[in-house]
Amino acid sequence: MSPNPRDQDPEADVRPPGFSRAGTRALEVAENLIYGGIALFLVLSAFVLLAVAAKTSWALTSDFSQQPLLEVLDVLLLVFIVVELLFAVRTTVEKRELVAEPFLLVGIIASIKEIVVLSVEAAGALGKGAEFDDRIVEIGLLGVLVVLLGVTSFLLRRKEREPDEGDRSPGQAAPHR
């Protein structure tokens, strides 16, 4: 009879802490159901927002002021944000990891949306002193935020293109920058 490896190493039978395979699988199914629910709500929200945009666009036929146009633009940019969030959820489910770039893009779009809205409001507040100044400061801060989010996205893409530090063989030098 050959000796049993477990007889020689008493720790060989000890399982690592955590869930069993069935527990892990159950959590994976629950995670997929939750992501599916989030995706469903995002899709429904996008369709509702499109309907709101269509209804607001219809108001443009009788009201030629900038307010309905601003509302349509605001809602359409919100649809854009919801669709980008849907893309982020899909990417997270496909890659089985949280990917930062889609969320950075959502932040950029949301900031630009607010810049557009604030620009129109600032034009209406021209000559009103503090109200105009507040809008300009907000626009400036959002502009800085867009630049920072853009730089962060650029740096993430650059990092993803570089090989991992552990991928080089022991005698291989690091690539020059």
TrEMBL record:
Subcellular location per the Swiss-Prot or TrEMBL entry: Cell membrane
Membrane topology category: Multi-pass membrane protein
Principal place of residence: membrane
Transmembrane parts of this sequence: 33-52, 72-91, 103-124, 136-156
The keyword Transit peptide appears for this protein: no
Alphabetic keyword roster: Cell membrane, Membrane, Transmembrane, Transmembrane helix
Superkingdom per UniProt: Bacteria
Protein name per UniProt: Phosphate-starvation-inducible PsiE family protein
Organism of derivation: Blastococcus deserti
Biological classification of the source: Bacteria, Bacillati, Actinomycetota, Actinomycetes, Geodermatophilales
